[in-house]
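Pipeline run #58 for the internal structure catalog. This entry was flagged by the ingest filter as a single-chain record with no existing model, so it goes straight to prediction. Upstream metadata was stripped on purpose; only the residue string is passed forward. Reviewer on rotation: M.T. Logging verbosity set to normal.
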Amino acid sequence: MFRFERDTDTERVLDDFLAYQQAVAGLAERTLINYQSNVRNFTAWWRGAGGGDLAAVEPADIEAWLIAESQRGLSPRSRETALGAVRVFLGWLRPDGPNPAEQVQSPRYPPRPVDPYRPAEAQRILDTLAQTDTLSGAFDHAVVATLRWTGIRVAELTGLRLDRIDLERRRAKVVGKGSRPRTVPVPLALADHLGCYLEEIRPACPPSVFVFANPRGLRGSARWGTIDKQGVLDLCRRAGERAEVDGRHHPHRWRHSYATELLRAGVDVHLVQRLLGHRHLESTTRYLHLIDEDLRAAIDRTYPAGTIATPRRTPTAGVQPALEAIAHDAPVPEPTSGPDTS
């Protein structure tokens, strides 16, 4: 079955698709924007290539589109994201029929390197932020401390509401990927810090229902009373640079640090998966290679090179002539008889 007998209005179909994903699937705004952009890109290419009904799309057509996207400079990771959007779209169009996008292999690419902060680096950033006596500085300190001790995503932090944080029970309810709610435990140290923030700093920030309202916000703007992703990115970059810590500074680096420290402390990988809100265990196990590096380093420190002497053996009299003959491509001499011991 194809949802529309004739695709006479692609934009109408796309609007219906997005409305379904928002109302029924409950997808987040960011995901909907991604779907809209990539599906519109594909349908425009399909029309330009002389395609008719979307019911006629074949796997080879989708592969040709991905090749065209590669030729115009789209990275493998971005092509994978685009293919995922088209898979969902064509699956929605053909709820009872085969989905040609399912038969197309996703582009492969090396995983992004994980670069967590070392504990001393994380502490230096927090200590540097704590030295400020301004409202903006105290706000920045609270944001970074929350990223540090909860490992939540940027969208989860910016959407955290005042009525969804319970410091007595030390937990916060956030909305993660795919608009999926989850509960995040709040460590004791962070609970004390957030308690002070909510009592002393938050009332001086723009009023709203959100825990974090950027005091640098412009009154009357769309972001008044909250903080957006770019604001968190800028905040993390400033904090890392001011503390003179090497590397790129971004919110997700704090999430990497949170996961890595838990695993290094011996926390079960399945518990870390739940704490991070990962749907798939593979997303969590990417941090395990760092733990393997720790183990190898520990072994090398315990048993450094040169600890065990390597024995040097001199070939016996019968073996040495044979080795020389092989080296010179000559017949191997018969072994000489040893002394008669009978």
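catalog note: Residues 1-7 have pLDDT under 50 and may be disordered.
catalog note: The first strand starts at residue 165 and ends at 166.
status: ready for reviewer M.T.
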